[in-house]
Write a structure and sequence with these properties.
The chain is an alpha/beta fold. Helix content is about 35%, strand content about 20%. The strands form 5 sheets. Strands 6-13-7-8-12-9-11-10-14-15 form a 10-stranded mixed beta sheet, sandwiched between helices. A 7-stranded mixed beta sheet has the order 26-27-23-22-21-28-29, sandwiched between helices. Helix 5 packs across helix 9. It is globular, with a radius of gyration of 28 Å. It binds zinc ion (ZN) (2 copies) and fe (iii) ion.
């Protein structure tokens, strides 16, 4: 019998598992890795073969994921033994590669066992754990094609590697203190410090409040003692990251529980084999410096996922800030020379090692919502694991994504390979990272796309990249349509839906900036049936960084010059000269595009309430507005205006309501809550209206605004109570990190229907 297995079956101990299983059932034949997965030929008792197949299917090794398994009978060849044969290299190279896997229990117990030969060895790993995607240069997944190639295994390591009964059989990154990578500690001047024990020294430095750049799996982290106020503020000011929260690493679940509240699902996610950063609600007595996550109700917490991290958190006894090694919005640093250059004004010391990182990968960020994992940033541990589509893509497609939180996506058959989080495509560094990422994915998954999908925004670097490609068909996809389809694919649904797509910015088919959109759509087309009314965005990009401009723009539309007489703090503190200039811009239509953005409305309300008039990171004003919300049952008024076959949501009564509440001294907490209620009510009213006209029961919620869990909770509850089937994001981010997947699916549908 011949058996073909496809999926994540290489580099996860699959062949020794098959070998031992065959021996157990007295089967003869062989197993090998081929370039599409694992291939097995077996002979023996029929009932034994059936049991053999069943066990492979139902109880594969912990890190293996079987996508397809196919078997058929052939004439017996009279094998005399069961063996593991050498890999075959074929023309059609294609094997999904496993993401990184956190250090397993067995490796951990060896790591802390003084009698083990890998005691305190920071690069211990086995077939069940360790680096994968970040060290792979080419396929097949074999040591010579990884950044472990320069390390020649010692006799003991080689013996483990060759022994099918060993946990390290064909563990490609296998290493020990004798033959493997090693650590060095450098001071600020990049001089190697000679100390008896690097890890002990690093722990001492961290305890003394120093900032240490630590080379990890997918890049450098900047670490310091999270309970040391002074160290945290120093890191914050050196990183030019005024308010954006820092992630924290704690040694175990018990420590996480001292900092934050966590439920069963959150605990499971934290200590699983992936170990993303999980957003958890802070306890009031959380012992971490306020500056770690200012103005936030949440901390991003992760458990150690490499042996090095395990050693540092265990031996230092500290709760550590572990934030990406970069300056503000640049991508995470992953090469040593880059670290010495770009982190030189931040880090006091560098903890480096000589295992090269081939592809930079940030930590993934998740939260748990209604008992399920929700991706906010999909990177380490998830990429390059593909999403399985419920249909086949006839053509290979590259989708370039959007601009902020960029990811790209490549399709092959029913696999959608979503890239790791690339970052904000706003500078050369990130663009290079994007371009290299695309080439790397094409190579390791053997994909040569015939089509490229891109966002309609002419200024996005991802769009410019797509349009610059030669010999490839190009398909432009509207941003909000892509959001909705990404959420549909995430949930495995197709057909026609009501799409509620709320975000900060997306280029509309009328050349305006959309972002508060109600679509009726399927995979191939959308109809924009309703949207928030258009308001000028004075200064374009500047208005995104300065939400007070948007607040003033709303007031100007509603009150005209009388806005200056309003008895509210926002007006009293308004810089009249600046405003005069901006008003001129609006009046003349200079650099003041019209926008229906929901994100900008949240910004405006945040500024009106005096919560945040200028932001230091994307979404800050809206996040702080959410964090301020108390409890209110009321809603503000709004009305719907019919315009041809489209409905506009008129916000004038809402803004007036807020202004009047501010003027009469209503608490900011109550206003914020009432604003959130109103927003959910707007969504409900429009969905009811669309259902009445089109009979569609399914509502898909997507776009960055739905990262706001308060809004999501309220909206979900209202829609659910009205009998809608509501779909939200889980594996794919609701923010622009999901756009590429939507683009790929829409492009595929257009190709299939012959529209392009
Ligand atoms: Zn292990
Ligand atoms: Zn060795
Ligand atoms: Fe968006």
């Amino acid at each position: 019998m011949q058996i073909n297995i496809k999926g994540i079956v290489q580099g996860v101990g699959f062949r020794p598992f098959v070998y031992n299983l065959a021996k157990k059932h007295n089967l003869l034949g062989y197993v090998l890795n081929d370039t599409s997965g694992v291939f097995i030929e077996v002979e023996g008792e029929k009932s034994s073969i059936n049991q053999f197949l069943e066990t492979i299917r139902d109880q594969p090794p912990p890190q293996a994921v079987i996508f397809e398994m196919e078997s058929h009978g052939i004439e017996p060849k009279g094998f005399e033994d069961f063996v593991i044969r050498k890999s075959e290299e074929q023309e059609e190279k294609f094997v999904p590669i496993s993401p990184e896997i956190a250090t397993c229990e067995e490796c951990l117990s060896e790591l802390f066992d003084p009698n083990d030969r890998r005691y305190r060895y920071p690069f211990i790993n086995c077939t069940n754990c360790g680096p994968r995607f970040t060290i792979v240069k080419d396929i097949p997944y074999d040591r010579k094609f990884t950044t472990m190639a320069p390390f020649i295994m010692c006799e003991k390591c080689q013996a483990e590697y060759d022994d099918p009964g060993d946990r390290r059989f064909h563990a490609q990154p296998n290493a020990c203190p004798v033959c493997g990578p090693s650590l060095s500690l450098l001071n600020h001047e990049r001089v190697v410090i000679d100390v008896p024990d690097v890890i002990t020294e690093v722990c001492t430095l961290l305890r003394a409040g120093k900032i240490v750049a630590i080379k990890g799996l997918g890049g450098y982290h900047l670490a310091c003692d999270a309970q040391n106020e002074d160290a945290v503020s120093r890191l914050r000011s050196r990183k030019y990251r005024e308010y954006k929260p820092f992630a924290i690493m704690v040694k175990d679940i018990e420590t996480a529980k001292r900092l934050c509240y966590l439920n069963e699902e959150e605990e499971k996610l934290l200590k699983g084999t992936i170990r993303p950063i999980v957003l958890l609600r802070k306890r009031p007595d959380c012992p971490v410096a306020e500056d770690v996550a200012p103005h936030q109700h949440y901390h991003g917490i992760m458990l150690p996922y490499t042996p090095l991290h395990n050693l540092i958190v265990a031996e230092s006894g500290l709760v550590l800030v572990m934030t990406s090694g970069n300056i503000s919005s640049e991508p995470i640093v992953y090469h040593d020379n880059e670290a010495f250059g770009r982190l030189k004004n931040i880090a006091d010391f560098y903890l480096v090692h000589n295992r090269e990182i081939h592809i930079r990968t940030d930590d993934s960020v998740f939260r748990v919502w209604r008992g399920k994992e929700v991706a906010l940033r999909r990177a380490r541990g998830y990429a390059p694991y593909p999403l399985l589509l419920s249909f086949q893509c006839e053509e290979q497609i590259l989708a370039c994504g959007a601009e902020l939180k960029n990811t790209f996506c490549l399709t092959r058959g029913n696999y959608a390979f979503m890239s790791h989080h690339i970052g904000d495509l706003e500078n050369l560094e990130t663009l290079t990272s994007f371009e290299e990422g695309v080439e790397h994915f094409k190579r390791i998954f053997n994909i040569e796309p015939a089509f490229v999908a891109y966002d309609l925004h002419p200024e996005y670097l991802s769009t410019k990249y797509a349009l610059s490609l030669e010999d490839i068909q190009k398909i432009g996809v509207q941003h909000h349509h892509a959001h909705i389809i990404s959420c549909m694919a995430d949930n495995g649904i197709d057909g026609e839906v009501i799409g509620v797509s709320f975000d900060g910015t997306g280029y509309g088919t009328d050349g305006k900036i959309w972002g508060g959109e109600f679509l009726v759509c399927d995979y191939s087309a959308f109809k924009r049936v309703a949207h928030l009314e258009y308001t000028p965005l004075p200064g374009g990009e500047r208005a995104i960084k300065e939400p007070w401009r948007m607040a003033a723009s709303f007031l100007n539309r509603i009150y005209g010059d009388r806005m200056l007489d309003l008895d509210i703090d926002f007006i009293k503190s308004l810089d009249r000269n600046k405003w005069a200039t901006i008003k001129k811009m609006i009046d003349k239509g200079l650099n003041s595009p019209m926008t229906s953005s929901a994100g900008r409305l949240f910004d405006a309300v945040s500024a009106l309430l005096g919560i945040r008039k200028e932001v230091y990171y994307e979404g800050q004003a809206a996040i702080e507005l959410e964090m301020t919300a108390g409890h209110a049952d009321l809603t503000y008024p709004f009305y719907l205006k019919e315009l041809g076959n489209k409905t506009e949501v008129i916000l004038e009564p809402l803004i007036k309501g807020i202004v009047s509440d501010i003027a009469s001294g209503v608490a900011v907490e109550a206003i914020s809550s009432q604003f959130h209620n109103t927003f959910s009510e707007i969504i409900l009213q429009l969905c009811l209206k669309i259902r009445q006209a089109n009979g569609i029961e399914r509502v898909v919620l997507s776009g960055g605004v739905f990262q706001n869990t308060l809004l999501l909770d309220k909206t979900f509850a209202l829609l659910d109570a009205s009998g809608f089937e509501v779909y939200t994001h889980h594996r794919v981010p609701t923010n622009d990190g999901g756009i590429a997947l939507g683009q790929a699916i829409i492009a595929n549908e257009l190709i299939k229907k012959g529209i392009v």
